[in-house]
Amino acid sequence: xxxxxxxxxxxxxxxxxxxxxxxxxxxxxxxxxxxxxxxxxxxxxxxxxxxxxxxxxxxxxxxxxxxxxxxxxxxxxxxxxxxxxxxxxxxxxxxxxxxxxxxxxxxxxxxxxxxxxxxxxxxxxxxxxxxxxxxxxxxxxxxxxxxxxxxxxxxxxxxxxxxxxxxxxxxxxxxxxxxxxxxxxxxxxxxxxxxxxxxxxxxxxxxxxxxxxxxxxxxxxxxxxxxxxxxxxxxxxxxxxxxxxxxxxxxxxxxxxxxxxxxxxxxxxxxxxxxxxxxxxxxxxxxxxxxxxxxxxxxxxxxxxxxxxxxxxxxxxxxxxxxxxxxxxxxxxxxxxxxxxxxxxxxxxxxxxxxxxxxxxxxxxxxxxxxxxxxxxxx
Length: 379
Hints:
Number of strands: 16
Distance between the termini: 110 Å
Order of helices and strands: HEHEHEHEEHEHEHEHEEEHEEHEEHE
CATH superfamily of the largest domain: Response regulator
Mean pLDDT: 91
Structural class: alpha/beta
Number of helices: 11
Strand order of the largest sheet: 2-1-3-4-5-12
CATH class of the largest domain: Alpha Beta
CATH topology of the largest domain: Rossmann fold
Helix content: 40-55%
Radius of gyration: 28 Å
C-alpha cells in the first residue's frame, strides 16, 4: 500500500511539473505575440518645423496641408509640428532637437533660415533623416528639396501682364535671395510675354510673414501707381490691400482668392503632399538618397509632377488669357521649353542668356540679378 501511495504521489508530482512547464511555455508565446503586435502598431513619427502659424493662408498652410496628406496616405505615420519658430540658430536648433528627443525619426524643416541649424542638429543625430526646404546644403542624413515655383510664377505673370492698365505692377518681396529673385524674374518674363511695356516694381520687406508690414508695402506700391500687386510673402495682406482700392493681385503659396476674391487673378501654389509621401516611404524602405541631383537640391519638382501649380482663376481673368496660360503651361510640362530659355536681358540691357540657350539648374538656383523690366535692387 505504501509503495502504491508513493507511485501515486510520484505521478502527481510529474503531472504537476508538466502542467507548470506547459503554462510557462504558453505564457512566453503569448508575450511574444503581444510584443509583436505592439511593434506592428508603433507609428513612425515625423516632425515639422514651421516659420508661421498653420492658419497663415499661405506658406505654412501649404506645408501643413501636405503634412495632413502624408498622415492620410500612410497609416503607419504619426506627425507633429511646431509653428512660429524664428529662424535664429538658437530657437531653430532647440526646436529641431526637441522633435528628435520626442522620437521623430524624420523631420521636415520648412524655411530657408533653418538650413544651418538643420545641418548642425543632423550631425548629432545620424540615425534621424532631415529634409530642409529651399536651402542648398545637404549631408548623408539631410536632403534639400524645393519646387520649380518659377514655372508657376511665369504663368501668373501672364495673367498680371494682361490685367494691368497702367503698365506698373507692384511686387512685395521678402528677402533678396536667389529663391525670391528668380521668382521675380520669372514673373516679369511672363508679364513681358504679353505686355512688353509693363514694368515690375519691387519693394523688400525683409520678413517672410508679417501681415501688417506686407500690407503697408503693397499700399505704398499702389500709391506709386501700381494697379496689380504680386508677392513673395506668406500672408494675404498684399492681396487684401489691392482689393481695398479696387485693384488686382497675384497671391502666393496657397489659393489667396479665398481671402481677397475681388482682387486675386490666381496664385502660384504648392502641392507638396505627394512628395512627402514618396520621401517618407523611401526612408522607411531604406532607399532614400540625399545626394543632390538638381544643382544643390535633392528634389526639385515642377509643373510636370504637380509639386507646384496655379490656383483657380478669378472671374476677372478672360478666356483668352486662360487659353494663353494653358498653352505656355503645356510647353513647359512637355519639356519643349522652360522659362529661363533665352533670349533675355538683364536690367542694364545686356543679353544675359542668348537666343535658344537654357540656363542650367545651378545658374537658376544661384540667380542674383534682375531681368530687364524689373525696377528695384537685388540688395
